[in-house]
Design a protein that fits this description.
The complex is a heterodimer.
Chain A (H helix, E strand, L loop, with lengths): L10 H4 L4 H32 L3 H28 L26 H22 L5 H28 L3 H14 L13 H8 L7 H19 L9
Chain B lengths: L4 H10 L15 H8 L4 E4 L3 H8 L5 H22 L1 H29 L5 H24 L5 H10 L4 E5 L2 E4 L1
Helix pairs in contact in B: 1-5, 1-6, 4-5, 4-6, 5-6, 6-7
The chains are: A mainly alpha, B mainly alpha.
Amino acid sequence: MDTVSIEVNTVAELAQAPAEYRDAAAKIVRSHAINELYGAQVFDEPAVAFAPTPYWKWLTCRVAMEEYGHHQRFFRLGQKMGIPEDAMVPGKTDKRPLSIFEFTMTSWEQFCVIKLLADMAEIIQVEDLMACSFRPLRDEAAKTMPEEKFHAGFGLRSCIELCRTAAGKRDVQAAIDALFPGMPAFFGQPHSKNNALYRKWGLKRSTNEAMRADYIERARVLVEDKLGLVLPAPA
Amino acid sequence: MPFDPAVVAAHADALHSQCWFDAAERPFSVGEEFALAELAPTIARVAQWGEARRIADDARGNAAYDADAHEAALLKARAQAVAGRDAVLEALSAIVDRGSEIFFAAAERALARAGLRDDELSRVAAGAAAEAVYRAALADAVTGREHRFVRVGACFAAGRWPLARIGTTLYVL
């Protein structure tokens, strides 16, 4: 598919963009609004109860607030773009959140691994948006990035802490084994028609396959080089 | 008592005018000692931000934390039984939405005044403040101002951080 050189600087300008561009931009904003909120609801908020001390509970509480804030950013952008509010809220829309959120989290170790591996996946998606042709979306991605990096760093620091004991190391490895195989699905199907449209209009730069390969390599560095554990094969 | 969203809104409106973490590391005033005595039989002043993590990360603080979490869940259930889930969520979301930047910026400033920069501790402090103010607003809206959560919220609003209650001692930065 040929690429189209286009730069949309404001939401007002978006109204003049081709319908295919507007639909593609709306799909991305909607997806981020839904998944940021759903992730906070199924992982971050419940993790407060699993955290081992008040210090980690408050940190987790703050991380949940930041994830909710990311939803708010994309939600507000979506409102300005004319996306119906219910279409950006899980439970009120037919659009399902990403499959990784179907994982049932039952421990602090699993939450730390979610921050380590799921937030790394989010970073790769957001990095791609930072060159997006729709400037309001690019700006929101740039604002989101420092917090996403902190969250992933929190995942790494907490996993390193847990791995100081044999039991902790075993639990972190078990959490990686349970979570990682499903993680690459975060990047969508190969040869995706949606992704081709996003690249055609400069909304995204990378193919799903390239992001997935990048993710697996970064996850390998984290799990094998930093933690000294084993990265299982993707599903 | 019914759940009163106007009471929660008043807490949210006051967020900008409080002095979050401003009194950290300072000696207690007589007025503060009097107010803190309402929260625990013994008060221990934590004199430095550097001590905050060690005390908040002490697992002996879990019993009091868990008891507060249980109390907060009961209050929320009472509020939802009266006003409905969505109304309670909408009212309390204002605390989180409007407090998020305020608490974090205040914690960063207070740490900077102490010559420190610590992105994690800033977030922990901001999370603690958000949780306390959320619970204070909830308790005030359900049972009134005499609830202990309202006093803890006032302690944060006065610039302190109650870090942990271990046994009969409350540790306060």
